[in-house]
Amino acid sequence: MSVKVLYVDSDGMTRPLDNLLVPDEETGVTITIDVIHAEIHDGHTFTANRVVTLPLAGTANVLIVTADTPEKVHITYQVISNAVLTVNFYESPDYAGGSALPSYNRRRDALNNSNTTLTYAATDSGGGKGTLIWTFKAGANKLVTASESTRLEFILKRNCKYLLESVGVQNDLITFLLDWYEHSK
Question: What's the pTM value of the predicted model, to 2 decimals?
């Protein structure tokens, strides 16, 4: 008597285990992909970017607001500048407003949108920037990143605000690159 083993995929669909453990035709080795790559295939990975020129001693920011949903946001980012740069990442800032920063599903044929809201040029509502949880300073033409490895990934609280801030010198060209996936497990 054979037993059919089933699993439930990330979309809640019940599937046979044969679909999960697929061997390579030549070697017979089980083909696997890492979690982040799987999230792209499942349509749960998003990206956004923003390029801005800072004025003398100026700052630029991206306000990240996570939804009050079961999914947790796993985020990485890069901030690039052509001049000396400080990048700060704050939790629970009292910031609001700004302009909507569009995000895009990295699986281009996926129909779902991100539950995370992004704005740029948000302003202080009076309560300050919140708790500084990460900071880094880089020299000219350098990249500040929390992305080259999942070890630098942040798993954000649900229903919480985060402020990613860049502080430059003058006439700095700043690029924000954000990548995240939303996962309920």
Answer: 0.80
